[in-house]
Write a structure and sequence with these properties.
The model has no long low-confidence stretch (mean pLDDT about 90). The protein has about 400 residues and is mostly helical. The protein has helices spanning about 5-20, 25-30, 35-40, 50-60, 65, 75-90, 105-120, 120-140, 145-165, 170-185, 190-205, 210-225, 230-250, 255-265, 280-295, 300-310, 320-335, 340-350, 355-360, 360-370, 380-390, and strands at about 275, 280. A two-stranded antiparallel sheet has the order 1-2. The chain is built from 21 helices and two strands. The two termini are about 20 Å apart. The chain folds into four domains: about 1-70, lambda repressor-like DNA-binding domains (434 Repressor (Amino-terminal Domain)), CATH 1.10.260; about 75-190, no CATH class; about 190-315, no CATH class; about 320-390, no CATH class.
């Protein structure tokens, strides 16, 4: 870490601490780091080790990448947690332990994990995932009325699946999706069934089984509850958005356009928000318009540029979705020969959700293309490429 990087890190830690209304003594006590060390780090005089940065971030209630966007220790933590997550899944249908937490405690923990997923804080999810999976499954098996417990299982599995999928553990991701599909009938909630169908599309993306994925989503739309309020509109609209993207990857422009049109109509009656863990609303539909254009390939880049010409996602959207917009726009910009713009878009994505940006395969692909073409500011680009593993 250079002196400039250390100074910038120190300023971010100090600013975050002040925003949390903490004194340096409070941060030292909560992180178990000495007060002189905290002062030296905030002044940019000392560079914290990965472990020190992590405990400071935990004390501040943020992911380390919020303090240092080039931090890569999260990847190590995630991969270290994957075997324990797999072990928690192995006997999901076998009651082997008594509940250790109350329902209220589990509801709070699961809600926090969902927030971490939407904020793309995968390291924090991975850290707590094995224990939380064990606990929600134990609660499910112990419950007489399994509806509420099943909803906790589905929400937990979805959050953990985000980690597995983003970090390339695709077999583990598929197992987590099967857990969701096993648990959701017990929830007796058709909206949650629709949300699981939405997540299941990851399996089709991974296998490049785009035509089958389109059919599965269309069947899910047919089975979804009729539109009667914002929640039902959001459930159907999210399925249409997802179907539009996978139809685009199948090269079916007409089907993609039809699904987008349905999503747009449903968004007219829905405020932008997060419904059972899925963002939906007018802004989400606009982001998916760009996603569909990119999915359809280079012949449709003008459609992607049209979406981004006078609009960008607001901070009301989850970080993961906002960063995805900039990553996909960067891909289109490379196709259009707008290399400097592409690099700027990737940097915006990193500033919004560093973990999501770093692990996105299109980030590496786009960065690798920029490096091969020797475009954009060379020193900054190579630093970025090293961070994402593109060189």
């Amino acid at each position: 870490m250079t002196a400039l990087d250390a100074a910038a890190l120190g300023r971010r830690i100090a600013a975050t601490r002040k925003a949390k209304k903490l004194r340096q003594t409070d941060l030292a006590r909560e992180s178990f780091v000495s007060l002189p060390m905290i002062k030296s780090i905030e002044q940019g005089k000392r560079c914290p080790s990965d472990s020190t940065l992590e405990v400071i971030a935990a004390a501040l209630g943020v992911d380390p990448t919020r303090l240092l966007d080039t931090y890569t220790g999260t990847e190590t933590r995630v991969h270290a947690a994957l075997p324990a997550i797999s072990a928690s899944l192995a006997g999901y249908d076998v009651p082997i332990a008594a509940p250790r937490r109350t329902t209220e405690e589990l509801c709070s923990a699961v809600a926090e994990t969902v927030d971490w997923r939407l904020a793309a804080q995968y390291g924090r999810i991975a850290q707590h995932a094995p224990t939380l999976l064990d606990d929600v499954l134990a609660a499910f098996h112990a419950a007489r009325d399994k509806r509420a417990a099943a909803r906790l299982v589905v929400a937990t599995a979805r959050s953990v699946d985000a980690v597995a999928y983003k970090y390339g553990a695709r077999d583990l991701s598929a197992r987590l999706i099967e857990l969701m599909r096993w648990a959701v009938p017990y929830a007796e909630d058709p909206l949650r069934t629709a949300s699981v169908a939405y997540v299941r599309t990851e399996v089709f993306f991974t296998a490049r089984a785009h035509a089958a994925g389109t059919r599965a989503l269309e069947a899910a739309v047919d089975s979804a509850p009729a539109t009667r309020d914002e929640a039902t509109a959001a459930a159907r609209g999210a399925l249409h958005m997802r179907a539009a993207v996978i139809a685009g990857r199948a090269g079916d422009a007409d089907a993609a356009s039809s699904h987008l049109a349905h999503a747009h109509r449903l968004s007219e009656h829905t405020r932008e928000g997060t419904y059972l863990g899925t963002a939906f609303g007018p802004e989400s539909v606009r982001i998916h318009e760009l996603s569909v254009a990119v999915s359809l390939g280079q012949d449709h880049i003008d459609d992607a540029f049209r979406v981004a010409r006078t609009w960008a996602p607001s901070t009301a959207l989850p970080a993961e979705r906002r960063s995805g917009f900039w990553i996909e726009l960067a891909r289109a910009q490379v196709w259009g020969g707008r290399f400097n713009d592409a690099f700027e878009s990737l940097k915006v994505a990193r500033s919004i959700a560093p973990q999501h940006t770093r692990e996105h395969p299109w980030t590496r692909e786009t960065t690798g293309t920029l490096v091969r073409l020797r475009r954009a500011d060379e020193e900054s680009l190579h630093h970025f490429a090293s961070w994402v593993g593109a060189v």
